[in-house]
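Rotation project, supervised by the postdoc (A.L.). Task for the rotation student: set up a whole-complex structure prediction and record inputs and outputs verbatim in this book. Inputs entered:
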Amino acid sequence: MKFTLSWLKDHLDTTASVDEITYALTDLGLEVEGVENPLDALRDFTIGKVKTAEKHPDADKLRVCVVETDEGDKQIICGAPNARAGITVVVAKPGMYIPGIDTTIQVGKIRGIESHGMMCSEREMELSEEHDGIIELSSGKVGERFIDWLAEHDPAKVDPVIEIAITPNRQDALGIRGIARDLAARGLGTLKPEKTALVPGTFKSPINVTIDADTRGDDGCYLFMGRMIRGVKNGPSPQWLQDRLRAIGLRPISALVDVTNFFTYDMNRPLHVFDAGKVKGDLRVHKAKAGDSIVALDDKDYALEEGMVVISDESGIESIAGVMGGLHSGCTAETTDVFVEAALWETRQIAATGRRLKINSDARYRNERGIDPAFNAPAMELATQMIIELCGGEPSEVVVAGEVPDWHRAYKLDTDRVQSLVGMEISAKDQIATLESLGFVIDGNMAQVPSWRPDVQGEADLVEEVARIASLTKLKGKPMARTQPGVPRPILTPMQIRERDARRTAAALGYNECVTYSFIDAGSAALFGGGTDVTRLENPISSEMSHMRPDLLPGLLQAAARNQARGFMDLALFEVGPAFHGGEPEEQHVQVSGLLVGHAAPRDPFGSRRAVDLYDAKADAEAVLAAVGAPAKAQIQRNAPGWWHPGRSGQISLGPKNVLAVFGEVHPKVLKALDVKGPAVAFTVFPERVPFPKTRSATRPALVLSGLQAVERDFAFVVDQGVEALTLVNAAAGADKALIESVRVFDEFSGAKAEAQMGAGKKSLAISVRLQPVEKTLTEKEIEAIAATIVEKVGKATGGVLRS
Amino acid sequence: MDDLRQKYLNAVAGAVDEAALEDIRVQAMGKQGEVALKMRELGKMTPEERQVAGPALNRLKDEITSALAAKKSALADAALDERLRHEWLDVTLPGRPRPQGTIHPVSQVTDEVSAIFADMGFAVAEGPQVESDWFNFDALNIPPEHPTRTEMDTFYMHRDPGDGRPPHVLRTHTSPVQIRSMAKHGAPIRVIAPGRVYRADYDQTHTPMFHQIEGLAIDRDLSMANLKWVLEEFFSAFFGTGVRTRFRASHFPFTEPSAEVDIQCSWEGGTVKVGEGDDWLEVLGSGMVHPKVLTAAGVDPNEWQGFAFGMGIDRLAMLKYGIPDLRAFFDSDLRWLRHFGFSALDVPTLHGGVNR
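Outputs recorded:
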């Protein structure tokens, strides 16, 4: 919303400076977004008088002038056709910036003769497009500042323009009078009395208006008033009106149209003018049918939808109600009879129609926010008066359809509650005065809301009005007491602690944390079991972000591909965040995913470099699981989902169903689809699935230490290739649960060499068993007995035999 | 006896290795050694003679023993020195590689903010990111057709034609967590709710996903003045320097009165410095929770009142750590992650400070 200072002063009697006004506006909630003050750019221009003007000896079109200025006579070369002795001009001296040509002028030689300044045209000072010659002033003293002269003789040219942002609740501030009212309430001047007019009609309007039964009141149109003014002469509007509209960025069109724009900005009162000569029969407000269309004033053809409110005459639709008029019945220079419309529209259908048709007009903007219902009839009179003033003509009586909806309502003003909510001392007297200055009528403890504030819908809104006029900038902070005295209690939930610990563990393991988008492309989502309609966005910003991610890995793999494209081939990336297994709010779960790509280390002199493998991912998955409190003993299963390598992936689970984590190589097809160069291994931990301990005690179980020497014995078994180490380890550990403290695999020997030694399809697994005697040192015989049991149990479980 | 002493001390001094030294020990101190033989002679002496010769022999024995020990240790030292002379490694070679992980600035700042608000009694609340339009809009006093709905550039989820419910949305703000928290825990309540939010906007300064943190405090008599204090305490702790705030009247459907909050800053030298200078930077929206919002969450507005605020976590991170581009937050460029990331052990605490 833009307005000029002089326009504001039409409504506000004030001596406040532009700075005072802009400060107050922002504080009041009408945030200033920009101020254009022409005075700033023209501050240094002064008035001079041309004493002599001779033709330049070497140029026909240039004149060598001697100009009297506040700094004495200056020689200035000028190319303007009107440069001649005796005229009063505006002078810019060397070193000054000329906004219209974006140049700082210097002393220079033009065709061999020095020039000490410049005489300016209006365009060069950005006052208008006028550039036929330099300015000739009708008066003015040599040395006088040009802006002072302008302020006196042509104030519109130096009128500051202020632009403010309007929050959705302040429809009243979409009219300059509303802004003035706020400033007056703040004490920056006095609101001038409202203008009124009464122009009696002299004949019956030949155009009548009806509203269809299904379009009345809340269904579309509350009130439609119209009147014809015949015998008008439409043409350019007067200079003052054109100046004002231009200053706020509007293009003057014709007197009739400019009048409607004037009321739109002056009083937040959109109006429409029909060329009555083109209206056939009466006007009818009704709902459009599917297939209807209209060419609107912006020359565009709009396909209307069923139910949009329109205004038609006998020949068809003439206007999209409250949004934009039609081209056919729009006013032109030839218009002689005009039909003026002032109507009240239901706001939601205006918003919906405007949004569907993508029309952002000043009328829609105001009608969808709600205009002053009590101002409908007065607006009609004021507009009539202005049209007759500017265009002449004779007004008809006003035709009316519908009625003014009841806008009267009042809310309790609890002045103590206001102070309690704001936390500021504002006396009851001041609160009442504030509301009254905003147009509220106070009756006892009830505040009646003015007609132009449809946003005020309850007591809380009264508090807001009082608070913003009192100035929130002045608010002083008050300490908020603790909810209970003493040391604050911990606040994180067990799950929040898990996420934090998982995150920091992964980082400690060497992974870089990423935050990737929650939505990915359909193809990538489909690779990870998602990508269906339930997780599809209806209005994605691009096809790359069309589906909620079913898993964190696609995002990490895409990040890896981007980094590989930048030349980083060895990567350890992780993310902690939500994945979406459905489209309902509760269908979201937390994942901790890590991705290792390339090699575990850069090349170095020690041979540390090796390709990452499944066991890196497994160890990291286990470390993260340990960090979130998973029990140490869990099962390892196969059958990981399809985006994992079928033979090189596993699931860590509690029981057959509760999968706590998945680890392994990423399926080569997935790598190819996401353009990642392998090897790539990964893990995903589901921290929510780890059981939460039932009781929490800081006390650890007692530490039992044996004084007796532990014994280690190594065994190497020959087993079939397919035998899993865990089966063998569990079998060995089962040989004597009391004495065997741990069983550890320390060697796997497989491949061609192993098969050559041990037979086709065979491999060797070597374990180290640690025996911890409990009561007495073990004799060699006892150890032999346990060893025999181990060999037997392993043999039974795996078919393995001791390697000879 | 002096001859004997001199003979062996000389021999010890002249020994070249441990074997020679052992020979000398055997010759002198062994069972058939010269000193042992002398000791045996003591028995043949008179008591008087023995009183003189005994102690002298013992002294000789001690003397040779310690000479042997000293020489042994000297030889060992010499041998070690000789070995070490050949043991040379190039210490300028790099150490064995050890991976260096990092924490993302969004996580770090979330932890920082949580630590500060925890001290003021705020718990951390969470809510779903696919949200029903009731929680995201209606309950927050944003009815259908309210201009805020379109201004927020909402992402809508697909809705099957047979399903008559309004489509779910990706939450456009963390404010629905206010409703969920109050509905679950009632009043009084103090929570913050950090998390991902979504708006259909992508340009230099906007990404379709970003992070917000919501704050909510409801009690019997909380006021906007308390809000101002809480925010000033927060910003001062967060930026590690006194930060003034400026409240400006504004409008949000879910608060009344509403205020936009600016923090003090300076733009000197082209970079923003929070807590200095006379300029203001808009960082958050806030206000007193609207009675309709309290009612929607099952809290009686006649009994309870309080404030809410919301601000951008990414933006806080950018301001505090001088990160220029929001879009880079979600690009996972390894160079960016390393440059702006934090150490795993750098857990923000109030006693250790939240400023690095």
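Student's summary: Residues 2-81 of chain B form one domain.
Supervisor addendum: Chain B has two domains: 2-81, 105-331.
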